[in-house]
Amino acid sequence: MSPTLAVIGAGAKAVAVAAKAAVLREMGVDTPEVVVLERAGVAANWDSVGGWTDGQHRLGTNPEKDIGFPYRSALVRRRNAELDERMTRYSWQSYLIATGQFAEWVDRGRPAPTHRRWGQYLRWAADRVSMNLVAGEVQRIAVDDDRWALHTHETVLAADGVMITGPGQAERSILPGHPRVLSIAQFWHRAAEHERIAAERVAVIGGGETAASMLNELFRHRVSTITVISPTVTLFTRGESFFENTLFSDPTGWTGLTLPERRDAMARTDRGVFSARVQDALLADDRIRHLRGRVAHAVARDGRIRLTLNSDRGGEPLETVHGFDLVIDGSGADALWFLPLFGQDARDLLELGLGGPLSGQALEESIGYDLAVSGVAPKLFLPGLSGLNQGPGFPNLSCLGLLSDRVLGADLGAGHQPVTRRKDERQPIR
Ligand SMILES: Cc1cc2nc3c(=O)[nH]c(=O)nc-3n(C[C@H](O)[C@H](O)[C@H](O)COP(=O)(O)OP(=O)(O)OC[C@H]3O[C@@H](n4cnc5c(N)ncnc54)[C@H](O)[C@@H]3O)c2cc1C
Fold this sequence. Notes:
The protein is of the alpha/beta class. It is 29% helix and 23% strand. The chain has 14 helices and 17 strands. It has helices spanning 12-26, 80-87, 92-98, 102-107, 115-128, 184-192, 209-218, 242-249, 259-269, 276-282, 344-354, 360-366, 387-390, 400-408, and strands at 4-8, 33-38, 132-135, 140-144, 147-151, 155-159, 161-164, 181-183, 198-205, 222-230, 288-292, 294-301, 304-313, 316-324, 326-329, 379-381, 419-422. The strands form four sheets. It has a five-stranded parallel β-sheet with strand order 3-2-1-7-16, covered by helices on one side. It has a five-stranded parallel β-sheet with strand order 8-15-9-10-11. Helix 1 crosses helix 14 (400-408). Flavin-adenine dinucleotide is lined by residues 8-14, 37-40, 44-45, 50, 52-53, 59-61, 137-138, 165-167, 209-210, 213, 396-398.
């Protein structure tokens, strides 16, 4: 009996793991049964339905960093080359060939695909490997004997391991319901509806790739100034040289670095930085400014939104207030978005494994080679928090092939009959 690995969210990571599991099964290798729970649809976050994009903006990383990249499996003795060869059937290029787009893509100079096209690729791969999908939003994660119990509105899925993916919910807003304050989802909804934004002074809270995509869109609207608010000293450009990229594709030397060295490398390459392409295209525009600080709160007064920012000057805390006509809260991505889903039993289990209170830092520092929280059984895989301990490519699209190796190579125990039951039924459906 194969153990069941449940994945929350049918995005890039789920498709990568499901595809590799399907290939391993084809090769006659024992592998967990992968079941994916999804609230909106496969690759939903790559189109307007997910709230993170309108689908028209372009992927930052190369599409060749696809679900099998870097095609250097180390999972099956003496058959890794065969595994990689089989995985190339689900590569970005195979997708283009299968859909008659390959020659045009090459002739156009291998452009970055739009988010929507990337989502279409992920759906194509998921279809081809017959990814096992359960529709529903996971609302609670509990423990049932020695397994996880994942509750959606209608079903409960029992699993021997769980992998949590995605950046969280795009609906977060510092002033919910106010028409002059938009969440990421509200912003992209307007963009997808081709609604024109007209405002004098606009603030965008957050300095990462999410904010970068929004800036890219905002420049087409009628705005006079755009102030990007982030806690960093300035808006940094991501290092994209061979050496920096290698850290993402190949984490071999990562664990040999000290924690401060790793944090430094991540700050320069990953967190709150704009890609060089964005810096070139957008930051040359003189409408854009940077304001350093953390937004503490927002109030609506005299037709404006006043933001209170905390920062420091010369080591002394400083509080400043700034007024804007429109605020876009781009700080939504939250690596810990899933914590409220844990029931008390699951929290107790995690705290026991962590040997202390449940916190982001404790989880981050506990992630083992298999991208799961060390000392916790059943396994809880948190690739989104694996950057610090295992390599900065695991939270994003930089090494999905390695990610699937690590997760599928983990020991999930003996395995049980997969069980999904409807909440209104006493007996499980097998
Ligand atoms: C605008 C934007 C652009 C980006 N561009 C890049 C890039 O170019 N390169 C790169 O490496 N990274 C990029 N990223 C980072 C990106 O989020 C990750 O690299 C990648 O999407 C992570 O894949 P994933 O499988 O973890 O999550 P996703 O692909 O985001 O999938 C998560 C899925 O989980 C579902 N879901 C959420 N909550 C629940 C729940 N409770 N129950 C069930 N399902 C749920 C969602 O509907 C979604 O389908 C970008 C992020 C954003 C927001």
